[in-house]
Amino acid sequence: MRQLWFTAWLLMAAAVVSVAMMPPPPTLKVVATTTTTTTATPTTTTSTPDTVTALCPAWWPLAARVGWSLNEMETLDAVMYSESRCGALEFNADDPNGGSRGLLQINGSWWRYLIDGGIIERLDDLYDPEVNLRAGLAIWQYGIDKHGYGWHPWKASM
């Protein structure tokens, strides 16, 4: 049910919202539902998982469009918020690897990997939200291939 809701929301939002450089959106809450079945004998209650709070929902349609799966969207949302507070133009000059850029705060240590992969031509391309999310997906896949866990490159922010 939750995945169906997310899919419907993503389709609607993609048709209505232009995600180019928009300010951080308000928090979106998806309320968990509870089903109770009562019979002559014991009562059974089942619940969906806890409430999902989307901190960067304006970026979800674009993330889905570039290939992020709905299964990873909640974690992607948390990483975007933790890294950049949903800001596509954020820069962290304190990062010792040439600074971190954009929504996912991708740092300069990835420049050769992303250039060789045809994702960027220069590091400043990472300020484009679509490019940043594509680069993040490539880095996430690298984490799966290398460590068996896609979020390994962002482990400090989780």
In helices, the fraction of residues equals 25-40%
Q: Would you count the extended β strands for me?
A: 7
Helix and strand string, N-terminal first? Answer: HEEEEHHEEEHH
Query: What would the principal axes of the Cα set say about the shape?
Result: globular
Write down the domain tally.
1
As residue ranges, the low-confidence spans are 4-39, 43-49
Within the largest sheet, what's the order of strands? 5-6-7
Number of helices: 5
Distance between the termini: 27 Å
Average pLDDT level: 78
Oligomer: single chain
Main pleated-sheet profile: 3 strands, antiparallel
The radius of gyration computed from the alpha-carbon positions, rounded to a whole number of angstroms, is 18 Å
Strand portion, in percent? 5-15%
Report the structural category.
alpha+beta
Protein model, in words:
This protein is of the alpha+beta class. The chain has one domain (2-20, 57-157). The chain is 39% helix and 13% strand. It is built from 5 helices and 7 strands; from the N terminus they run αββββααβββαα. It has helices at residues 2-16, 60-66, 70-84, 111-116, 129-147; strands spanning 28-30, 34-37, 44-47, 52-54, 91-92, 100-101, 106-107. The strands form 3 sheets. The protein has a 3-stranded antiparallel sheet with strand order 5-6-7. A hairpin with a 4-residue loop joins strand 6 (100-101) and strand 7. The radius of gyration is 18 Å and the shape is globular. The model is unreliable at 4-39 and 43-49 (pLDDT under 50).
